[in-house]
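pls design
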């Protein structure tokens, strides 16, 4: 079976660079918070190598705890340890392991490369990727869900739990009775070119000065909904000069907002990620910005079949620059998440996003009000 994979914090001070001028590939030791609280009792059990939640309410409780107590993706590993000894290894951990080889001569494709060649399931929400096992399986009540990548789109399967042993032996889900297939489309969309006042703005280069508007002040008209990631790459600072190379390799900043749905779980969020180009393997997130600042606000409705739309309006922080991190390579935040035993989806009306990144003296800052 082909490899299957599913998609107000203050950081620590930036570590000094090596005396020879070469930037380290790894974050300085001691940068993780060692005092992360463990979750209360009542969580899932490990069964057949994946997590088994007795009820949807149990799943929702666990997700609320993960989102509330673990502010950084790398901290989630401290929760996973509770289940590793029973044979569970998460999708999030698999992403981490694939990119653990930071040698300059690595030839195995990076996570980014495998995503682009449709060889890995994309799950931009690290908190959801934490409860999926490395093969994309999770069980809630009497249903096992299998998430994988297909030739044209990603796929999700709802399988009666009585066939768990068959799944573990590698039987394809559609060969089992009562299985439901869900096509999960995933697009990586670049931001369109808006006209003022909804356009991108680069401070210091654009002649237009953006008014000092609150982050949750939305433009008129609703956002055209998309499914996947909306964003792009930046290779230079606001002054037009390229980011300094990392040990002789090109560096870029990837920024995006995501809106995804995985049958019983949906979420929307934001991410900044620094990447360098390896010699043979593609782009890898192993270079660290001095500072990352994010500010965002989104508004919309949660759709669950048979129920009235549930409105929401979420904000990341009280306002820029309160949501900042230092010595960071991957800064993400789930803005809104929802779970349902039937099906659910997040329908966006507006999604404002502002970020500012300082990479070794190069400042890249953008605004979007949509």
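designed seq:
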């Amino acid at each position: 079976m082909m490899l299957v994979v599913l998609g107000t914090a203050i950081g620590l001070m930036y570590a000094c660079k090596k005396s020879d001028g070469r930037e380290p590939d790894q974050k300085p030791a001691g940068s993780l918070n060692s005092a992360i609280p463990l979750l209360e009792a009542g969580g899932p059990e490990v069964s057949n190598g994946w997590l088994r939640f007795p009820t949807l309410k149990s799943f929702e409780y666990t997700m609320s705890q993960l989102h509330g107590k673990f502010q950084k993706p790398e901290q989630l590993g401290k929760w996973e340890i509770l289940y590793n000894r029973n044979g569970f290894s998460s999708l999030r951990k698999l992403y981490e392991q694939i990119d653990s080889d930071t040698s300059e001569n690595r030839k195995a494709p990076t996570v980014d490369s495998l995503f682009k060649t449709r060889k890995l399931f994309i799950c931009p929400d690290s908190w959801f990727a934490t409860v999926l096992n490395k093969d994309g399986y999770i069980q809630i009540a009497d249903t096992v869900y299998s998430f994988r990548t297909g030739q044209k789109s990603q796929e999700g399967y709802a399988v009666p739990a009585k066939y768990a042993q068959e799944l573990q032996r590698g039987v394809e889900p559609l060969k089992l009775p009562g299985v439901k297939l869900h096509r999960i489309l995933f697009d990586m969309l670049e931001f369109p070119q808006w006209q003022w006042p909804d356009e991108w703005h680069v401070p210091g280069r654009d002649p237009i000065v953006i008014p000092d508007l609150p982050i949750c002040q939305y433009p008129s008209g609703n956002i055209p909904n998309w499914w996947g990631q909306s964003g792009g790459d930046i290779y230079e600072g606001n002054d037009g000069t390229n980011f300094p190379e990392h040990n002789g390799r090109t560096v870029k900043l990837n920024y995006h907002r995501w809106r995804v749905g995985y049958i019983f779980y949906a979420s929307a969020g934001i991410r900044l990620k620094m990447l360098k180009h390896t010699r043979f393997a593609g782009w890898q997130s192993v270079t660290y910005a001095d500072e990352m600042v994010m500010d965002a606000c989104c508004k919309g409705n949660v759709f669950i079949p048979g129920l009235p739309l549930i409105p929401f309006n979420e904000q990341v922080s009280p306002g820029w620059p309160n949501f900042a991190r230092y010595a960071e390579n991957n800064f993400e935040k789930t803005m809104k998440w929802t779970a349902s035993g039937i099906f659910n989806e997040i329908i966006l009306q507006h999604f404002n996003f502002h970020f500012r990144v300082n990479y070794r003296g190069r400042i890249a800052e953008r605004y979007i009000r949509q």
